Amino acid sequence: MKNNLKKSQLLISTELGIYSNLYKDIYFDKLHGIKETQHNFLKANSLASRFKNCNKFIISELGFGTGLSFLMTLKLWKKTKKPNAKLIFISFESAPLTKIELKKLYKYIKGLKTLSSQLIKKLPSIYQSIHRIFFEADNVELILIYDDFNSLKNFKFQADAWFLDGFAPQKNTSAWNSKLFEQIYFATNFQGTFSTFTAAGHVRRGLSNSGFSVSKVVGFGSKKESLIGIKKTLSSEINKASSFNNHIGPVAIIGSGISGASLAYSLRKRNLECFVVDKSSKYASGASGNKLALQMPKLTLDNSPYGLLSLEAFTYSRNLAKNLNSIPSSDGLIVLPSRERDLIKYIKLLQNNWPIDLISNKVDNDKFLENINYIYMKSSGILDNKKFIKNLIKDVKFVANFDVKKVINTKDQLKLLIDDKGNSLKAKTVIWANGYEMKNLSNNIPINSISGQVTYLKENKAYKNFKLNFSYGHHFSQAFGGYHQIGSSFNRNEDKNYKEIDQINNLNSIPEFLKKIIKNFNSETKYRVSVRASTKDRMPFFCSLETVINKNTKNEYLLGGMGSWGFVYAPLYAEFLIKSLLNEPLVINSNMERLLGVSRLL
User: Fold this and answer.
1) Which of 28, 396, 563, 584 has a beta carbon 3.0–4.6 Å from 264's, enabling a disulfide?
2) Cα–Cα distance for residue pair 111/81, rounded to 1 Å
3) Is 318 a domain residue?
């Protein structure tokens, strides 16, 4: 995996305005950027009237640039949308502007201070991946695909409107070629539209040849003409399944660990009714109940689907944890190679142009790491598990001490959940997210039980204010709540009993240089044992229950197989499952799709 993004090279001057030195072109009119955007994109696609009459709307854009088109769209959406309507805004960008650059340029734009501040606060680190940002109050999802425009061919979605905004054709040829026009046409809904500021002949002919009905309209300012178009032919299978389904609630989520909590969050932010059911008296009593978890990506040297998905999942879950104030103050993560090939891999990864907050070879005040091979991942690190889960399921009804034994289909097309005491609950949709106990539904469910014991080592004064965490096959955390967390053992069973040998092995796993810092490190310890649900390829899955059970289980689904990576993968997998149920486009690189479902494991 390489980070192939370009430097934005923003220039703000009285002569040129908001200018890109990379493309030698302006981002927008320096005096009338807002009016230009309204004319070229919002009015040209008739968005005001279309927003008033839709339950969902998908816009895609080539060239996120300054984010002005998105902000103007968001402002219009807030003013004209129907209650509970959904907006998805998909934007491709290969040379993203930094937050510092955006703050500078928005000083020159009036009327967008609040919205631009919200956007800048939510924007991700700049590296090549898919970044998903939510504006929950208005049910808006911004999907930033930091990649070149050619990557459009790897995605399956259909937009209702396109903003073609990749600088002037003579300045950026990558945005204006026949192959890309064909891909745009395929990724457009029936009656979907496009608009662009240019009226260049080869652009008009190319869009027309791809299938659009193209027209010239009056341009903005000094531009005499610009182009708009519409797709008049129903030709794609995706169209047949593109209608959104908001009628899945109430949704019963069985299991209150990280998978169940992530599902609740994905439903709640869409204002969909749901409740969480657990056989225990409190949430996160299983494998998600450790004090801490590590969030980090598993980077690969090639463009492996595993590496791409891991990076996207990490980006999504880490940003979500940050937004929910669930990350303790920390200096990041030190990753130590556990074998020679890991060291070779780390050296090569450091040459792949990733930003230094994602991966680097230097940490401040690293004298204690002299002669130690390591990589430093500043944006990775620990997570406060219980706080994260508590914030994910905030405002969601929690039904405790309810051990679901069977689910019955009722005549009114609902599901009746019955517990071991004969109590019942009703739901329209049921999602099983109960970890390794999911196997009780069927032996066909492809998960394995893994027992793990973590050790809690009482903090000492020598390490109390040291906020680095370490991963080395096991992990060693900074002090949190008076203890360091060390773990975890790996036993292929469902045994939840304490094992002295696992406690000894956890303590012995601590690297020697850390043992020297932490004197008397085994003076006082505690432990916790839990059982995780893993799969043969160590990747999660979601699916309908009917896929693995040979009987009528309509409207029942599974989300599982998180293993020890639930706090990285569960939030994104839960989001994908809910998107699937609502017929929202996943907007995922097609090379990764097979890692979502269960078929690869059967």
Assistant:
1) 396
2) 20
3) no
Q: What is the dihedral of CA 450, 455, 456, 460, to 10 degrees?
A: -150
Angle between helix 178-186 and helix 201-210 axes, rounded to 10 deg: 40
Residues 258 and 151 in one domain: no
Q: What domain range is 60 assigned to?
A: 10-240
- The distance from CA 168 to its chain's CA centroid, rounded to whole angstroms, is 32
Cα gap 198→187, rounded to integer Å: 21
Q: How far apart are CA 75 and CA 287, in angstroms?
A: 42
Round to whole Å and give the CA distance between 149 and 147. Answer: 7
Return the residue matching tokens 């996943």.
Answer: 586
> Same structural domain for residues 256 and 338?
no
Q: Domain tally for the chain? A: 3
pTM of the model: 0.95
Do 422 and 452 share a domain, yes or no?
no
Q: Is the peptide bond prior to 178 cis by the omega test (within 30 degrees of 0)?
A: no
- Please indicate, yes or no, if residue 161 is contained in any of the structural domains: yes
Position 256: which residue type?
S
Say how far apart CA 107 and CA 165 lie, in whole Å: 22
Helices and strands of the chain, counted as H and E runs: 15, 29
Which pLDDT score, from 0 to 100, does residue 241 have?
43
Percent of all residues in the chain with a pLDDT value above 90, rounded to a whole number = 79
Same domain assignment for residues 473 and 569:
no
Domain contains 80: yes
In degrees rounded to 5, what are phi and psi of residue 52? -65, -25
How confident is the model over 195-234, as pLDDT tens digits? Answer: 999 999 999 999 999 999 999 999 887 788 999 999 998 7
